[in-house]
Specification:
two-stranded parallel sheet, binds tryptophan, Tyrosyl-Transfer RNA Synthetase
């Protein structure tokens, strides 16, 4: 089964992203029946990013972080959207098949309008670029968070309409909604989100991570008093990171045998250990960017071959078959 998903490179991956979707996405490559295509959706990031240095930094960071977290280019195809020109060309061809009404119904767009965020035309047509990302590769299953379900359905609608109009070219994709792991709390106990400024990045530097963990908001309870594990963000993190001594910790909370400070210190160790292997892989990648470059080049080459073949079928169907006049 061909599985494809894109990861927008508009920020630095944090722990909320990791438990929300990254981990589940990466695991898909380990099932022998899956053929996984993963790409960094950097063109999509232009809908919000204006600064070239920042754009480049985020793009590189996303490439390296995803590889470090386990995307294995031997098992999966990994590439950058911007390396495959066919995405932008197909977008135009599909835009001319997509009704305004379809795009106006997109939740993500309506949400931006409702919040009075100024929308550029890229943001409005974002789902069509996403449709091109998917349809170029005959992807069958698209694992996404529930906020992206509608976009995949739009890709399916556009594909259906195209096939009907011009003849069968596109495989119809289906969304697969990634399980909603419990909401991941941020430093202040609200949902972890870049827009709340309460995130912990996956590859935080050691001192910063320690500081952030120590700054997690907790109730004010005098030392020696019992603590309530159920309302405690620190405890929630212990659980999320699979603390093997969770039961014991729970007892210590309830018996007043541990304070927030010690619980946080243990949490820091737990998080630091949890990402140790990934961090080591990442350090190697950072020291050997040539190798990263090669991975991207090989990915781009393979992806290009597939995408170009599909694009030329599409062009032919539409009458763009390069025939000379008479
Ligand atoms: N829009 C997706 C997101 O923000 C990223 C994305 C771009 C994508 N192209 C895609 C996901 C194609 C799946 C398939 O999460």
């Amino acid at each position: 089964m061909r599985i494809l998903t894109g990861m927008q490179s508009s920020g630095i991956p944090h722990i909320g992203n990791y438990f929300g979707m990254m981990r589940q996405t990466i695991e898909l490559q380990d099932y022998p029946d899956n053929e996984c295509f993963y790409f960094i959706a950097d063109l999509h990031a232009f809908t919000t990013q204006r600064n070239p240095e920042e754009f480049r930094a985020h793009q590189e960071r996303c490439v390296i972080d995803w590889l470090a977290l386990g995307i294995d280019p031997k098992k999966s195809l990994f590439y950058r959207q911007s390396d495959i020109r066919a995405h932008t060309e197909l977008t135009w061809l599909l835009l001319c098949q997509a009704n305004m009404g379809l795009l106006q119904r997109a939740h993500s767009y309506k949400d931006k309008l409702a919040r009075k965020i100024e929308a550029n035309a890229g943001l409005f047509t974002y789902p069509v670029l996403m449709a091109a990302d998917i349809l170029l590769y005959d992807a069958e299953v698209i694992p996404v968070g529930k906020d992206q379900k509608q976009h995949v359905e739009m890709a399916r609608d556009i594909a259906q309409k195209f096939n009907h109009q011009f003849g069968e070219v596109f495989t119809l994709p289906k969304p697969r909604i990634l399980k909603d792991v419990q909401t991941i709390p941020g430093l202040d106990g609200q949902k972890m989100s870049k827009s709340y400024g309460n995130t912990i990045d996956i590859f935080e530097d050691e001192t910063v991570l320690r500081k952030k963990v120590m700054s997690i908001q907790t109730a004010s309870v005098p030392l020696g008093e019992p603590l309530d594990p159920s309302g405690c963000t620190v405890f929630a993190f212990h659980k999320l990171f699979g603390n093997p001594n969770l039961k014991k910790l729970e007892q210590q909370y309830k018996n007043g045998e541990i304070g927030y400070g010690d619980s946080k210190k243990q949490l820091f160790e737990l998080i630091w250990e949890y990402f140790r292997e990934a961090r080591e892989r990442r350090e190697k990648l950072l020291l050997n960017k040539k190798c990263v470059q090669e991975i991207l080049e090989q990915g781009a080459q393979k992806a290009n071959t597939i995408a170009e073949k599909k694009l030329s079928e599409v062009r032919k169907k539409m009458g763009l078959d390069g025939k000379h006049l008479a």
